[in-house]
Amino acid sequence: MNDLKGRTLRGGFAKVCAQGANFLLRVGSLMILARILDPKDFGLVGMVTAVTGVFGLFRDAGLSMVTIQRPTITKEEISTLFWLNILIGALLAALSLAVAPILVTFYHEPRLFWVTVVLAVGFLLNAAGVQHSALLQRDMRFGALSAIEIASQVVSAIVGISLALSGFGYWALVGSAVVLPAISTLCVWVSSAWVPGAPHRGVGVGAMMRFGGLATLNGLVVYVAYNLEKVLLGRFWGAEALGIYGRAYQLINIPTENINAASGGVAFSVLSKLQSEPDRLRNYFLKGYSVVLALTLPITIACALFAKDIIPILLGPKWNDAVSIFQLLAPTILIFALINPLSWLLYSLGMVARSMKVALVLAPLVMTSYIFGLPYGPKGVALAYSTVMTLWLIPHIAWCIHGTMISLRDLLEVISRPFISGTVAAVATLVIQLSFDGPSSPFLRLILGGSFLVFVYVWMLLFVMGQKAFYLDLVQSLRGRTSAFEKDLSVI
Questions:
Q1: What is the spatial distance between Cα 138 and Cα 78, in angstroms, rounded to a whole number?
Q2: What is the 3-state secondary structure (H, E, C) of 128-193?
Q3: Which pTM value belongs to this model?
Q4: Using an 8 Å Cβ cutoff, are 37 and 164 in contact?
Q5: How far is the C-alpha of 489 from the C-alpha of 156, rounded, in Å?
C-alpha cells in the first residue's frame, strides 16, 4: 500500500501503452479485412455475436471481480471459483449449440449454424483463464497483462487476415475470434504460474456468487440494451445494413473500449484497495476521471468533424454509407467516458445493487429509442440511440454518486476544464474547415485538421485552463520523482 501511487501510475502507463498498441492493431486489421471482405461477411458474423455476446457476459459470472475486490482471499476460494468458471463456460458452450438452429430459423440464414458452433468453443477457452487473469490484476501486474493482451491481438489479427486472403470469407472473422481467447488463456497460465487445486465446500462461495451474480446481471442488462438494435437491424433490414451499421458502431466504440480497458482495470484494483480510506479514494477517482475525460474529448470531436475522411481511410470506398452513422454515434464516445468510470466507483465500494438499478432504468429507455428509429433504418437507430444517451447523462451521474464521497460539484469542476478546452478547439477547427479548402487527400486532411484540433485543445487545457502542473506532475511521477500527486484536488 505504501507504493500504491507508483504502482498505480506504472500500471496505468503500461495499460495505456498496451491499449494504444491494441487500438492500432484492431484498426489496422479492420482496415485490411474491410477491404478484403464484404459488408455481408461482417453482417453474418454480427447476427451471431449480437446474440451469443449475451452468453459471453456470463463467462466469468462476475467471479473475477470477486477475486480482485475482496480484501483477502484464500487459494481454496480461488480454486473453487476456477472450477465454477469452467462449469459456467461449458454450460454457455452447450447453450450456444442449442441456439444455433434457432438463429438459422430467425434470420433465414443456414450458414449461421456452423458459425455459432465454432464460436461456442470460445466460452471454454475464456473460462479457463478468468481466475489466472484476475490474480494478475489483483497483484497489479499490469505489465504482464498488457503484454498478453498485445500478443493475443497480434496472433488473432494474423490468423484473421491470413484466412481472409486465402478466400475463407466470413470464416476469417470466426477464426480470429476463437484464436484470441486461446492465446490469452495460454499466456495468463504461464505468467501467473498458478495451478488450481480441487474445489472446496464451506469457503464462503455463496457470498461471492451473490456479488458476482449481481455484477453479471448488471452486465447482461446493459449488453442487451446496447446490442438489441443489431438484432433488429439484421432481422428487418438485412445483413448488409447490419454490416454497415456494425462497422460504424465498432469504430466508434474502439476509443471507448480502449480507454476504459486501459484505465478501468487499474482503477478498480486501486479503488478496491482504498475502500477504508475515503479521502484517498475520492482523490484517486477524481484524478483518474479527469485524465479519462481529457483523453476522450478530442477523440469525440475528431470523429464528429472528420468522419468523411476517417471512414474512407479506415474502411475504404465501399463503406461510404457508414459516414453519417459514424457521425450520429460520435457523441456516445464522450457520454461513455463520463459514465463508465462511475461503475469503477460503485463496484469498488461494493454498491453493485445500485449499479443494477441504474441499468434497469437505462435499458428500457435505450431499447425504446431503437423502436422509434428502426423504421428509418440504421441512421434512424443511430440518431435515436445518441439522443436518448445524451438526455440520460445527467440523471445517470447524479444517481450513481448520490451518497458517496464524490459530489456533483467535484465532477463539474473536473469536467469543466477539458469541456471548455474541447469546445474552443472544435469551434476553431470548424471555422478553419469552412474557411479554407483542404487538400484533396483524405489522409492529409485528417492529419492537418487533427493536428490543429489537438494543438488548440492541448494549449487550452494546459495553459488557459491551468492543467499544466497536473499533467507535468504525472509525467514526473512516472519517472520516479517526488511530486504533489497526493495533494488535495485543488491541484487539478
A1: 12
A2: CCHHHHHHHHHCCCHHHHHHHHHHHHHHHHHHHHHHHHCCCCCHHHHHHHHHHHHHHHHHHHHHHC
A3: 0.69
A4: yes
A5: 42
pLDDT over threshold 50, residue 146: yes
**How many angstroms separate the Cα of 133 from the Cα of each of 39, 125, 245?**
34, 13, 33
pLDDT at 4: 58
- 396 residue type, one letter: H
Greatest Cα pair distance in the chain: 71
Q: Would you state the torsion angle of the CA atoms of residues 406, 349, 352, 407, taken in this order, to the nearest 10 degrees?
A: 0
Q: With the CA atoms of 320, 322, 327 and 330 taken in that order, what torsion angle do they form, in degrees rounded to the nearest 10?
A: -140
Q: Which residue has the higher pLDDT, 185 or 273?
A: 185
The average pLDDT across 52-68 equals 69
Nearest to 135 by CA among 183, 200, 85, 177: 85
Q: How far apart are CA 68 and CA 136, in angstroms?
A: 9
The Cα–Cα gap between 311 and 485 comes to 40
Residue with cell 475502500: 275
How many residues belong to the chain?
Answer: 492
Residues whose CB falls within 8 Å of the CB of residue 29, separated by 6 or more in sequence, listed in order: 156, 157, 160, 161, 176
Which range has the worst mean pLDDT, 106-120, 160-174, 195-209, 302-316? 195-209
Is residue 248 within 8 Å of 382, Cβ to Cβ?
yes
Single out the residue of 318, 314, 350, 288 nearest to residue 485, CA to CA.
Answer: 288
* Residue labelled with grid coordinates 479519462: 292
**322 contacts 447 by C-beta, under 8 angstroms:** no
Q: b/e for 38-70, b at 16 or more Cβ within 10 A?
A: ebebbbbbbbbbbbbbbbbbbbbbbbbbbbbbb
Q: How far is CA 112 from CA 1, 105, 120, 239, 250, in A?
A: 50, 10, 12, 12, 21
pLDDT of residue 346: 87
In angstroms, the CA 353 to CA 63 distance is: 16
Q: CA–CA separation, 68 vs 193, rounded Å?
A: 17
Torsional sign, CA 20, 397, 348, 127: negative
- The phi-psi region of residue 195 (left if phi > 0; otherwise alpha if psi is between -120 and 50; otherwise beta) is beta
Sequence spans of domains, the chain: 4-491
Measured on CA atoms in the order 443, 444, 447, 450, is the torsion positive or negative?
Answer: negative
* C-beta separation of 255 from 379 below 8 A: no
Q: What percent of the chain has pLDDT over 90?
A: 38
